[in-house]
Write a structure and sequence with these properties.
heterodimer, A: about 525 residues, alpha/beta, Rossmann fold, 2 domains, globular, B: about 375 residues, mainly alpha, ABC transporter involved in vitamin B12 uptake, BtuC, 2 strands
Chain lengths: ~525, ~375
């Protein structure tokens, strides 16, 4: 057997996929500048780079979604020109996108059927879907509708859909961004298995430790150019990060002298029936969050985090005002606008369509959450200068990169839009900030900026509640960590005491007390 | 070679402006073909439609008179459509407004009532139009009934109700059995702007409505609310805006404007209540709203343009015996092209050459 990891020892065998001088130009902008990569069978090849480095453009070209402006793609040594994704799939190239392309009102099986080019009957396809999902340990119920599923489950659909086409070459765009350690481990087993089946994987990720652990080879892009191809196992996370950003990454530092003050957000025995069929019921959730403190909420996606966010923000109201207390005022029955007036601010998980109106300008999106309490509206009239000022201040303070002063939200990259959204809320000097998945799908540089901003906000005296599936993130910024499971919230652990094992147990529904662990909640 | 639609990174402002012009161009091309098929000289027909009405003062005034109800109704509809509330029943609200306002005119007929009559008619017509529009809006909010269907069906209810009144209780006893009320008293009539002309006060009201809508949508938080609820419902909820309240509000406002347009038409150019007071203003206004990009100023221009087609259609019928229905065909084709061209705002055409030789990198 050839060892695909050692460079240059592929005698006789051509790379499975190769790009030669691949270039993509958008007007004057070079998204990809003469990129060469070789991917061999039995290789997990990492594609690393900051947002805007050109990773997405490169994989879109390989998947036939866009036509390169120059350069070529070779498949098993032979030059190919892809007319579109269906031709790519026919040749054996599969892709799992970071942003899922699923129809919410269709079932899992119907969604998979739509993505397949084959002619098999729906019944056969459903059976094969269940079989593939079982074989690879990616459990899915084909009959459930997508809108009921968590982010993690939705991703499973995309992966299974790609696997059902039996690809020789699979592109994964940030697959672990929404997974728990255990789910990620499960995914790595799947990927190792695919590798053993002679397939190749192009793996886009920001998580450098994960790349070091999983990948044989890493190609690093920066500013549309290839910087280096290396063996990530021989590099440190720091050296990989340096190659990605072209300099040192700012380390997130918890400022010293952070003092907790009065309780600013208190939740008392909050129970809420599911808002939609198959939603999660919130059960007896209680916690107290003081000023100057960051409470992290961990948990597998779909265990009630969205419902808790809606209950805290006021997108869903509670009959009992006392269940949510903001700044000492019972607010369970108050609307989101009234809660904002009490000094609360919210950052939802979905950036486009929830946190912002995608086709509206940033200034209008500043107004979206700022109209109640930021002096942007006088006697019903909008103060455009004030909204633009918020955009400028957020841009300056949080280094939001954009093409013009006031572009549409949808035109920003994920990281830059998230910096804007977080900035928009922090600039209002909130007493309480509730933020969900603050760095989902955000590059290392932007993530560091956002985490630092949350720490600084807490230092300034605000109470910050962070829901995240990234345990490293919670360990980095939270003072205490609680875990959500089936709509219940565990007692918070001090971060120093919250080992991955303990959190993993809680995330799986087990109790930490040995007596109760014997009859742990069955999932 | 393949022609594909490619999504733009950002909506194109330029295309948003010129897309109605492209649509009008395509419509004219289609009409030329249609005229040729009908055996009419296309150049003469186009002249009759678009040039002749612009050359005499009577027709110019008539265009403004026809544009008045179109613009007023379309402004109201644009608020609904921006908020994702689909009021298709402006025609019915127009008729109900006309009926409600006429009630005062009929009841005060020949009684020497004061100058309060016309203002009262306008207010009552607006209120009646609003209430009539609230029926589908409340059904939508409370029961989830499709407002498209309910608002449309109420058009026929209003139409038949008007028909019943003018054939029955309100019929002019001296009217030789024609289904019409008596001519309204002068105090119940919308004053003319030029003595002996056609232009009336309603056109000034329409301009005022355009200005108010422009300020509402461009400058106020309520206008922003309307736009964001339509553009991104979930983000609007996160912003603290209530979509159901807006459905009620925009339906009420658009119903009021349609009702107002109805009484102005009856108490103005028509002078009495009769069936057929509207050549489909409530439906044509839907085209006006979209052709005008749901933008108040755009709607003003589009309203004048559609009014031109009404007048031009009449002239073409007189001069060239082109059936008046061709005007309706024209308007339908125009809406079709407007909606089609709108995809160019978010997408662009691109030629793809799958087999093109691409320059190879240097290796």
């Amino acid at each position: 057997m050839l060892d695909p990891t050692s460079n240059g020892l592929h005698s006789g065998e051509p790379p499975l996929l190769q790009t030669l001088g691949l270039t993509k130009r958008y007007g004057d902008f070079l998204a990809n500048d003469a990129i060469d990569i070789d991917v061999w069978p039995r290789q997990i090849h990492a594609l690393l780079g900051e947002n805007g480095a050109g990773k997405s453009t490169l994989v879109k070209a390989i998947y036939g979604l866009i036509q390169p402006s120059a350069g070529e793609i070779r498949w098993q040594g032979e030059r190919i020109v892809l007319s579109g994704p269906s031709e790519a799939r026919r040749r054996g190239i599969g892709m799992v996108f970071q942003h899922f392309s699923l129809f919410d009102n269709l079932t899992v099986a119907e969604n998979v059927a739509l993505g397949l080019d084959g002619t098999e009957s729906f019944k056969d396809m459903s059976a094969r879907l269940e079989q593939v999902s079982k074989t690879y340990g990616l459990p899915l119920d084909p009959r459930r509708e997508v809108w009921q599923l968590s982010v993690g489950e939705r991703q499973r659909i995309e992966i299974v859909r790609a696997l059902m086409q039996d690809p020789k070459f699979l592109i994964l765009d940030e697959p672990t961004a929404v997974l728990t350690p255990q789910e990620a481990d499960q995914l790595f087993i799947v990927l190792e298995r695919l590798k053993a089946e002679d397939r190749a994987i192009l793996y886009i990720s920001h998580k450098l430790e994960e790349v070091k652990r999983l990948c044989d080879t890493a190609t690093i892009l920066r500013g549309g150019r290839k910087v280096e191809t290396c063996n990530p196992r021989l590099e440190t996370a720091a050296s990989l990060a340096r190659m990605m950003v072209g300099g040192e990454i700012k380390e997130v530092k918890a400022p010293a002298g952070r003092k907790t003050t009065v309780p600013r957000l208190v939740v008392n025995d909050l129970s809420l029936p599911p808002g939609e069929a198959h939603g999660v019921r919130l059960e007896h959730i209680s916690f107290e969050l003081k000023g100057g403190e960051i409470l992290g909420i961990a948990g597998v996606a779909g265990n009630g985090q969205d419902e808790l966010f809606a209950a805290l923000s006021g997108e869903r109201l509670s009959k009992d005002p006392g269940t949510v207390v903001i700044e000492g005022i019972a607010a369970g029955h108050l609307s989101i606008t009234q809660r904002r007036k009490l000094g609360a601010a919210f950052v939802p998980e979905e950036r486009l369509g929830h946190g912002t109106a995608p086709r509206m300008k940033l200034s209008e999106n500043a107004l979206l959450t700022g109209h109640a309490a930021s002096g942007m509206v006088h006697h019903g009239f909008i103060d455009t200068a004030a909204t633009l000022k918020t955009v400028d201040r957020a841009t300056e303070t949080f280094d939001v990169r954009k093409a013009k002063r006031d572009p549409e939200a949808a035109s920003l990259s994920g990281g830059n839009l998230q910096k804007f959204i977080v900035g928009r809320e922090i600039l209002r000097n909130p007493a309480v900030l509730v933020v969900s998945q603050p760095t989902w799908g955000v590059d290392a540089g932007a993530a560091a900026v956002i985490r630092q901003a949350l720490l600084d906000l807490a230092t300034a005296g605000a109470a910050v509640l962070v829901t995240s599936q990234d345990l490293d993130e919670l360990a980095e910024i939270a003072d205490r960590i609680a875990v959500m499971f089936h709509g219940r919230l565990s007692a918070p652990l001090a971060t120093s005491d919250a080992t991955r094992e303990k959190l993993g147990l809680l995330m799986g529904g087990s109790s930490l007390e040995p007596r109760e662990a014997a009859h742990a909640v069955g999932a | 070679m393949q022609l594909v639609l490619e999504k733009r990174a950002e909506r194109s402002g330029t295309i948003a402006l010129i897309s109605p012009l492209i649509a009008i161009g395509l419509t004219i091309v289609t009409m030329v073909i249609l005229f040729a098929i009908l055996g009419k000289n296309p150049l003469l027909a186009l002249h009759a439609y678009f040039i002749a009405p612009l050359t005499d003062s009577y027709s110019l005034q008539e265009i403004a008179v026809k544009a008045t109800p179109l613009v007023m109704i379309a402004i109201g509809l644009s608020l609904c459509y921006l908020a994702n509330a689909w009021n298709i029943g402006a025609e019915g609200q127009f008729l109900i407004g006309a009926v409600a306002g006429s009630w005062i005119a009929v009841k005060t007929q020949g009684t020497d009532a004061g100058v309060w009559v016309l203002p009262a008619m306008l207010v009552l017509a607006a209120a009646a139009g609003a209430l009539y529009a609230l029926i589908p809006a409340i059904c939508k909010v409370k029961f989830g009934a499709s407002e498209i269907l309910t608002s449309l069906m109420l058009v026929y209810v209003a139409d038949l109700f008007l028909d019943y009144l003018v054939r029955g209780p309100w019929r002019d006893p001296q009217g030789f059995n024609f289904p019409t009320t008596a001519e309204f008293d002068p105090v119940a009539t919308v004053p003319l702007l030029i003595e002996g002309g056609r232009l009336h006060l309603g056109s000034i009201i329409a301009l005022f409505v355009v200005a108010a809508a422009a300020i509402l949508l461009g400058r106020t938080i309520k206008g922003f609310e309307i736009r964001v609820v339509g553009a991104a419902p979930r983000a609007a909820r996160f912003g603290g805006f209530n979509a159901n309240q807006l459905i009620i509000l925009t339906f009420a406002v658009s119903g009021a404007l349609a009702g107002l347009a109805g009484i102005i038409e009856v108490a103005g150019p028509v002078g009495h209540l009769q069936p057929g007071i509207s050549p489909g203003y409530g439906f044509t206004a839907i085209i006006v709203a979209f052709l005008g990009r749901l933008n108040p100023l755009g709607i003003l221009i589009a309203g004048l343009f559609l009014a031109l087609t009404f007048i031009g259609g009449e002239q073409a019928q007189i001069a060239m015996k082109i059936p008046l229905d061709v005007t309706k065909v024209f308007q339908g084709i125009l809406l079709f092209y407007v909606l089609a061209c709108d995809s160019l705002i978010l997408y662009r055409f691109k030629l793809v050459f799958p087999n093109r030789q691409v320059a190879s990198g240097t290796h």
